[in-house]
Write a structure and sequence with these properties.
- The chain is globular and about 50 Å long.
- A three-stranded antiparallel sheet has the order 1-3-2.
- It is about 70% helix and about 10% strand.
- It has six helices and three strands.
- Strand 2 and strand 3 form a beta hairpin.
- The longest helix is centred in the N-terminal third of the chain and has 29 residues.
- It is mainly alpha-helical.
- The model has no long low-confidence stretch (mean pLDDT about 85).
- The termini are far apart.
């Protein structure tokens, strides 16, 4: 039998899974209105992750996004070819590439965040204002917990 904590964890995992899938589908629809980005879903995830942790190594980015190194290298090359990212050798270890957004990449991330906000508005419109105001600080705490966990994994 599941304890109350496991039951809550299970329910939370199920709810987050549904929200993430719905948000992803809603965001895809929003972006298609703009003729769609030329870099696909994973490219958008990578741009947003780089924005959060730049400048960063490919290794740190790979850990953050949860993809293998070869897949990440292909995505990064495509984003670099589009002028959205730039690579520079690490000053302390020239074998390591440091990734950061270009000005065009920064603009693209701003656009993605606006579209994400619109997608969240669509989903959250089903909640009362009171529920939304309670949800925001809880999600911010959960996001902070993921950042702390990600930093621990990178070390």
């Amino acid at each position: 039998p599941m304890s109350e904590g496991h039951s809550d964890s299970y329910r939370l995992a199920q709810a987050l899974d549904r929200v993430v899938r719905c948000l992803s589908a809603t965001l895809k629809t929003e972006l298609q209105r703009d003729e769609g980005p030329p870099f696909g879903h994973l490219g958008g995830v990578v741009l947003l992750a780089v924005s959060d942790i730049q400048p960063c190594s490919i290794g740190a980015l790979t850990s953050r996004v949860g993809r293998d190194h070869s897949q990440m290298t292909r995505v990064l090359r495509g984003l670099e070819d589009l002028g959205l990212l730039q690579r520079a050798p690490d000053r302390s270890d020239r074998r390591v590439s440091i990734i950061s957004l270009t000005d065009q990449g920064e603009d693209t991330v701003k656009h993605l965040r606006v579209r994400m906000s619109e997608a969240v508005d669509t989903l959250a419109s089903r909640l009362s204002l009171k529920d939304r105001r309670q949800l925001v600080p809880l999600m911010e705490k959960l996001a902070l917990a993921t950042e702390i966990s990600e930093h621990a994994q990178e070390k």
